[in-house]
Amino acid sequence: MASLCVVILTYNEERHIARAIESVKSFASEIVVIDSFSTDRTVEISRSFGATVLQNPFVNQAKQFQWGMDNAVVASDWVMRLDADEVIEPELAREIADRLPHLGPDIAGINLKRKHIFLGKWVRHGGRYPLILTRIWRKGQGRIEDRWMDEHILVWGGRTVTFDAPFSDHNLNDLGFFTDKHNKYATREAVDVLNRRYGLFAEDHALTSQGSSLQASVKRLVKEKVYNRVPFPVSTLGYFLFRYVVRLGFLDGREGLIYHFLQGYWYRFLVGSKVLELDRALQGYTTAEEKRLALAKLTGLKL
Q1: Cα of 173 vs its chain's centroid, Å
Q2: Phi–psi pair at 134, nearest 5 degrees
Q3: Most buried pick, 43, 97, 153, 241, via CB within 10 A?
Q4: What domains sit in the chain, N to C, each tagged with a CATH number?
C-alpha cells in the first residue's frame, strides 16, 4: 500500500481545520499541520484529530510550506498539499486510495482539479473550473516555488497525471475576510511584478509543463509575457470581460457576478494600482538593493 502525508498550513483556522482533516483521514497515513502561532483553537483541534503540529513564524506561503517540508519528519511515500479551507470530497478520496498504490515509478506528481465555492455556490464558468494544480508528489521529488504569490508545486524525475474527481476550495468566512485577504495578496503580487522589473531578489523560474500542470505553466506565461505588459486599466477590464462574457461567467448567476467582479476585475485592478503606487515610491532609489529595502519598508514584508 502506498502511504501519503497531508501537509496543511494554518493560522486561526478553527472554523475550517476539522473539516479539512476529516476529509483526508480515509486515505492519509500522516497529517502534518504547519501553524503560524494561531491565537484560536486551531492547534488544539488539529491535535485532537490526530495531526502532528509544528509552529513557525509566517513570512509567506511558499517559505512556510518549504519550512514544513524541511522540518517535518515524513515517513510516507507521497506528500499532499492541502489548504485549511479546502475539502477532499468523497469521490476524490476514493480515487486517491484506489489509484495511488498502482502508479508506476515514472509518475512523480498528481494534478488535482479544484472547484471554487463562493457564497455557497460552485463557480463553474469564467474559466474557473477546472483549475488544475499539482498537489500530490513523491517524497523527495517535489518542492514549492519560492515566490510571494501564485506559488506552485514543482516535481522532477517523472511525469504528472491528472485525477478525475475534483476537490473544493470552500472558505466559510464573509466578504470582509475575502476582500482583506485579496488586498494582502495584491501587495504580494505587486512585489513579484516589481521584482521582475528591477531584479530586487532571486526569482524562481522553474515552473514548466513538465514539472507542474500544463494549465498552470501556460497561465503563468501569458500573465508575465502578455498581461503584465499591457496598461492595467486596459488589461483588467479586458480580463474581466473575457471571463464574464467570452468564458460565460454570467451563467454563474448573482453569486458569480460578485465573484468574477471582485476576483477577476477589482483584484486585478488593485494589483495594477499597487504596482503603480509602489513603483513611483521607488523612483528616488538607484540600486536594486536600495529599492529592495525601500519596498520592504513600504509593504512591511520581509523581502
Answers
A1: 18
A2: -75, 115
A3: 153
A4: 4-169 (3.90.550.10), 175-299 (no CATH)
